Amino acid sequence: MELIKKQTELNGNTFNYLEGGDPSALPIVALHSLGNSATSWVHVAAGLEGDYRFIALDQRGHGESVRTDTYSFEEMREDLLLFVDALNLERFILLGHSMGGTVSYLFSQQYPARLEKLIVVDTPPPFPDEPIEIPPEPVEPLPFDWKALQSIMGQLNSPNPTWWEKLSAIITPTLIIGGSSSNIPQDKLREVSELIPDCKMVTVDGAGHHVHHDKLPEFLTILNNYLD
C-alpha cells in the first residue's frame, strides 16, 4: 500500500498526514511516538493483508504539522477528534505507539463510540516512577518541536491518575503489543491488559520499544491476525 502525503486544516492549523488504501474501506488511523512522524508507519501500511484505508497523522509539533505554543496528551487527543471529524471518519481502528499510544488510550476513554478496535504498541499510560531527566536542547536542527518533548516528558513525570483510573471504562476491543527487550516495563502492559475488559496482550520476543521497526514481520503477523 502506497501512502500519499496530504494536509488538512484543523482550527486554522495545518496538519500533515499520509493516506493510502481503499477510500471506502474501514479506516486505520495511526499515531506515532514522541520525536517521530507519520512516516514511521510506512512499512506497516505496506504489510497489511486486508483492505483498509490507512491514515497516519503527524501529531502537533511533529513532521510537517503545526508547531504550537502548548503541547499535551489531552491536546493531541482533541487534535485527533478534529482530524477524524474533518475526514468524516465515523468509526475507525486506532493504532498508537508510545506517545501515540497514550493519546489512543485517552481517546478511547473519552470517545469510545468512534472506535472499532484499539491497538497500542509498547506503552501503558504514564505512571509514577523515577523522574525522567529532560535533556538540554540539541544545537542541531530537529525534525520536531523541542517544546513538545519538554511538555510530554513533563507529563510523564507528573502523570494524571485518572488516565489509569479510566482504563476499566474502555469498552473497545483492545490489543497491546509489547517488546520483550523494551525499556518499557512489560508488567505494566500486563496490568493495563487486565484493567481493560476486552483486552489481549502479545509480547514480541527480541523486540525493543520500537516493536514495528525491530521485528516488522512478527509485528505484521500479530497485527494482521488481530485485524482479520
From TrEMBL:
One Pfam family here: Abhydrolase_1
Record's keyword annotation contains Glycosyltransferase: no
Key words, A-Z: Hydrolase
The keyword Hydrolase is assigned to this record: yes
The AB hydrolase-1 domain, residue ranges: 27-129
Listed GO MF terms: hydrolase activity
PANTHER family xrefs: MONOACYLGLYCEROL LIPASE (PTHR43798), MONOACYLGLYCEROL LIPASE ABHD6 (PTHR43798:SF5)
UniProt-recorded name of the protein: Alpha/beta fold hydrolase
Organism field: Oceanobacillus kapialis
The organism's taxonomic lineage, starting at the top: Bacteria, Bacillati, Bacillota, Bacilli, Bacillales
